[in-house]
Amino acid sequence: METLFEKFRRKLNFSSPQIQRSMHQDINWNARMIGIKGARGVGKTTLLLQHIRDTQNFMSNEVLYVSLDDIWFSSNRLVDLADKFVKTGGRALYLDEVHRYPDWSQELKNIYDDFPELQLVFTGSSLLEILNARADLSRRAVVYTMQGLSFREYLEIETEKKLPKFNLEEILEEHEELAREILDQLRPLRYFNDYLKSGYYPFYREEPDLYFMRINEVVSMMLEIELPLLRGMELAYVRKIKQLLLIIADSVPFVPNVSKISERTGINRTTLLAYLHYLEETALTINLFKDGSGYSQMQKPSKIYLENSNLVYSLAPGNVSQGTLRETFFANQVGYKHELQFIDQTDFLVDGYYAFEVGGSDKKKKQISTLRNAYIAADDIEYGYENKIPLWLFGFLY
Fold this sequence. Notes:
This protein has 398 residues and is an alpha/beta fold. It has helices at residues 2-14, 23-26, 44-55, 78-87, 104-114, 151-159, 168-183, 189-198, 211-231, 238-249, 258-265, 269-281, 309-315, 322-335, and strands at 33-38, 63-67, 92-96, 119-124, 142-146, 285-288, 303-306, 340-341, 348-350, 354-359, 374-378, 388-390. It is built from 14 helices and twelve strands.
């Protein structure tokens, strides 16, 4: 265990302080067991280390951070670590990458039940299943989902200004006043295209020339390691799901024709629908379904987007259109905390109530004129008017 403390303090010393993510305020850090799940690369480890540095006496033996992919666990059990940690005064145990540890859910349950004085905070893949894991942690763990930087968080990093976040209703009802509040401090459109291209993953400032290479590595690790590990997919089928992802990337927003894709890839219909579901679970795509059509694994999505606009540049650099970037941005930022559905008349139905058409500054209201609770999210404008709202403002939802 001494080795783990040494690694933890070294990692904490060498981790660079960054702006605190808004999610830090959303988490109830007093809960006895906290889970944070999300795609690789969105900043889960950094969030843990920041919280430890800012709130804990990390030089005491009461706090320990470990990554469960550490070779130490090849010959040591997590439950034994917890036992020894508590007996030597440990009070808060932070566990990174729990999905890399066999029987993680059963051992976490045992630790939670056997050591009531110990707080557990863990992170894991977006594929992590808390409810359906062999040991049901849903009654014990408070679980949060994390995604990459919002446009607001990106602006805070770039400008070093503290910016407010707004809820959807505030944006719809008060967007002119809210836009004025932001524009008094900075010009969002100056930064918007840079964010769409290379501002979503928190590591964008580390060796910018290698940014897209790192994104591709993240994608490969999710498909080649996490899918086989957490969904039991045979490695032989990973190539097929990569092929499917590239087909989607080449024509986003993608309207899937299951018969044609099946013929092109050699994947049967049932397996193909499962793969489309897996791609969304890994946070590589956003799958839209028609209102009321259901969301089962065997349901065909009506439209598919890549999960964020940086993936468009990374996976399909020769097929980047402004329209695709705008819609992908809206789906990513709004879909984080709201339910998105496909609707024939416009681009998105949000929470089954609000209809949105996404476009440029010249987007007319004719398409939504017959709809109730309908709005235009328009790019290239600083201020909106009535139900025409600046697209960039939807990047202030978190």
